[in-house]
Amino acid sequence: MRPFVLFIAAAGALAGCGTDPTTGSTLVEGQAVDYAGSRPVGGALVQVNQKGAGGGYGAVGDPVAADGQGRFSFHFEATGTSGYVLTATAPPGYFTGYQLAPALTAGRKNTGLVVPMYAPAWLRLQFVDTLPKSRVVIDIGGYKGSGDVLYYPRDTVLIRPIEANFKSGLLWSVNDQGKETATRIYVTPRSLDTLTVRIPF
After folding, report:
1. Is 2 helix (H, G, I), strand (E, B) or coil?
2. How is the beta sheet containing 179-187 ordered, strand by strand?
3. For the chain, what is the largest distance between any 2 Cα atoms, rounded to a whole number of angstroms?
4. Do 138 and 155 lie in a common domain?
């Protein structure tokens, strides 16, 4: 009976002296790629984030630069056991949405990771004041940001960012002295491309 008690006591002492295997040094290794085409995104800045108790994510440490093929390998010290994800950004507007961000297992080797990044594109919104000339107010949205309101524009061009390779609905309304007309179109711009949309009024 006594050897059994000693064995249990020794096992308990070892467990108490050990460190939690899900915290501490954590290896992060993989590649940043374009979400649509899986092409490497060279020079991406890779960032570890941890989910906070109240929601949202906070950066853990400094971002790490990937090489010319989007590859990265580094360690970070995990102080918690869960909630870690990996995101990346790169010029001229690549970014990882949190819904795409791969999860990390703290205190373990995380290898073969793929960090997908949404590619940017741009809209060239070309407002054309056709005959007969009129004073109107135009409200437009459907791209990044809160949209635009143009008061009494003439021929005007706006350049606005939009996510590439996704179908997006552009909606604009033209208010002509209280009479309002609305138009919706759908666009799917390609990565790093600029798509022109002509808006006559």
Report:
1. helix
2. 148-151, 137-141, 168-176, 179-187
3. 103
4. yes
Distance of CA 29 to the CA centre of its chain: 19
Residue 133 is predicted with a pLDDT of 84
Q: Which of 117, 151, 180 is the last residue of a domain?
A: 117
Residue 31 CA: distances (Å) to CA of 74, 112, 186 = 12, 8, 32
> Positive or negative CA dihedral for 63, 66, 71, 73?
negative
Instruction: Evaluate whether 14 touches 62 at the Cβ level (below 8 Å).
Output: no
Which domain, by its residues, includes 109? 21-117
Q: What CATH number is given to the structural domain containing 151?
A: 2.60.40.10
Residues 161 and 177 grouped into a single domain: yes
How many residues would you count in the chain? 201
Among residues 38, 29, 23, 26, which one has the least CA distance to residue 100? 38
pTM across the whole model? 0.75
Tokens of 73: 């390998």
Q: Give the chain's domain count.
A: 2
Cβ neighbours around 169 below 10 Å, total = 11
* pLDDT average per 10 residues of sequence, the chain (201 residues): 38 42 91 92 97 90 97 96 96 94 96 97 96 92 95 95 94 95 96 96 93
